[in-house]
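Listing 4. Sequential folding, example run.
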Amino acid sequence: VPVDYNNFVLGPVSAAAGEFWRDALSYLIITGSLACAAALTNAGLRYMYAMGREGLLPRYLGRTHPVHKSPYMATLTWGALAIGLFVLFRIFGHTGIDAYFWLSPQGVIWIVLVQALTALSVFQYFRREHPDEQSWKTTGCAWLGFAGQLFVLALFYHSETYVAAGSSLHCKELFRTGPGTLPAPASSPAPSCLGA
């Protein structure tokens, strides 16, 4: 279903709260998206580097730069993957904003899954390596963190079509606020959002 991403959030906010809040939200979305992209890229690079260093991924990913000591091979590989995805999206006629709305939820899912497994690994580590040091911090908190992340994954799975703009019903509802209906912006008519 084609979605009008340009007015996905800002159109309803403009109609409900006014132009000032629409403009403010657009800046918050841009800066927040940049922060999230930087954080997820940093986390992905760290995982790639650590897993390459330990031999769980190809070992070249665990190499550091001889002068700067940065994980340059993981960085170059991550960049090549990002460019490859961008090129694929362009080949199939999609824009960068399509990629953002389609891939961002996937990034969140994988990061939350890794965090859940990390919480479980804390329990396993102390159970195997330091059985005499087990306490509520290394058992109860680890399991609580694991269960909490699984709960977040379940919520996300239940609401994924809404989060990722994948539901035509949700897309139609973007132009409704209470009893009234928002007019579609002239630059991008409602039929492009509603699909055929």
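-- end of first protein; second protein begins --
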Amino acid sequence: RTQELEEERARARGLEARIANLEEQVILYREAANIPDPVSHARIEGALSWFSPSQNVRVAFVDRGSLDGVMVGDTVMRPPQMFVGVVSEVSEYQAQVRMAGDALIQIPVQIMGSNASGLLRADSEFGLIVDYVERGESLVEGARVVTSGADRTAPALVVGSVLGTIQDPAKLFQVVRVQVDPKAHISGPVLIVRQP
């Protein structure tokens, strides 16, 4: 039995070393691509617990609050770079998080592989969309949608991917439909980060 425990500990140490190596590689790639580190500022570890979603409400709770330093407007993410939501209310021991698709938040985003940026928001007709993207902007289905870093949201966090676009010749902007990564909406460990 002792032999098995020692082997398991050795495997765990090997995995920890591999994770540390991969994290160093991510940092090098981010620096090479000039992508800012979304968690280089204040961060608090917590756990996200689920909620009962409805059509236009996407709210979860995190087990950290004002006593832990959490503030309204902080970004909630899953490492290494997945956007979960924005803290909207804080009590002493927990915080409410509004997630992508909630009718009460708009998130500044960029669409990778293009110069397109806009506001991610819920739309009653099309679901989750990026608004204010110029009509002439060419976008690829499946392109990553990431936070832009504006409006105190941590930058370069993956929100989801482009499902398609809706063009209306009478309008200056196109509607970009977005699918959120479903892993963002599950219970479990998260980081709460704050931009300076």
